[in-house]
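FAQ: What does a ligand-bound record look like?

Like this one, built around phosphoric acid mono(formamide)ester:
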Amino acid sequence: MAKRVVIAVGGNAILQPKQDPTFEVQMTNVQKSAEQIAKIEAMDYEIVLTHGNGPQVGNILQQNELAKHTVPALPLDACNGESQGFIGYMLEQSLKNTLRQNQSSANVATLLTEVEVDRDDPAFKDPSKPIGVFYDEDEAKQLQASKGWIMKEDAGRGYRRVVPSPMPAMIHGVDSINHLLEQNIIVIAGGGGGIPVYQDEDGLLQGLEAVIDKDRTGRKLAEQVNADIFMILTDVSNVYINYGKPNQKKLEAVCVKETQKYLDDGQFAAGSMGPKIEAAIAFAKTGRTAIICSLYEADLALQGKAGTRISYT
Ligand SMILES: Nc1ncnc2c1ncn2[C@@H]1O[C@H](COP(=O)(O)OP(=O)(O)O)[C@@H](O)[C@H]1O
Ligand SMILES: NC(=O)OP(=O)(O)O
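The answer part, i.e. the structure of the complex:
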């Protein structure tokens, strides 16, 4: 029986911080990512693919704000939906073309995914999710004063606007995902962490203005579709301790207890590797394996030849 993997691709797979955020640039990046995902498909895995949207949803929000005097602005949950749609389109088309070239019989489907969160999640009072482009300190101060945006420093890379980022509690559409996987279809779901929603007093779904972390949603998705492996693809080959220092050491196979200790010791930056490690630990606690590795070594990592593997013991 084919093994099931949930793969979360990082922002760099779609747009790198210094790149111009044109559609063409993002499409070129996505095409390279699709070639890597197709290698995993060729290894006979059932694949659920999820992805970030921080730069894209920030840019959509800004487009809305700039045009609001002529076209009414959409709320952030609708912007999340837009970003799922256009990133899903780029991924789906690139994957279909690559699979066709590889003469694979697999197909691809993108699902718009709502994710339930707690309306009273404390994250709504403490925005922390960086979105959109980077600014220097002076620009950040000006934007904070003129537009009322909340600006925070993002992992040593500059200042960005931040929005609330509640925890994902329940992914919608898992039955559909399971059905598609059984039909040899790669499913793109939970993009941008999913569209945050809650159930109101009448049991009706309503959108919320927030951006969920895609690694957290990826982990939840992996649990809900009963995946064998949860994989986070990013722009470093491994997780390191003492990262960036002369004595940095790469982690290859680590258990939950050891990884938790490094996390508690502050080895993983809050806005970047920290959430990935938290998600990986949470998944590994279910007794299955989480992998963090480079997008370009994903196939090797699944064979145990690259990346960082986090297991319960
Ligand atoms: N301990 C660590 N080991 C490896 N990378 C780390 C560590 N701490 C921070 N990082 C940073 O995490 C980055 C990946 O996180 P992030 O930029 O959020 O990725 P993505 O956009 O791919 O989700 C790496 O480029 C690296 O600079
Ligand atoms: N939603 C989300 O986590 O996006 P990024 O990975 O691009 O920050």
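Follow-up question: can I read anything off the structure? Yes, for example: The chain has three domains: 13-117+169-210, 127-163, 228-313.
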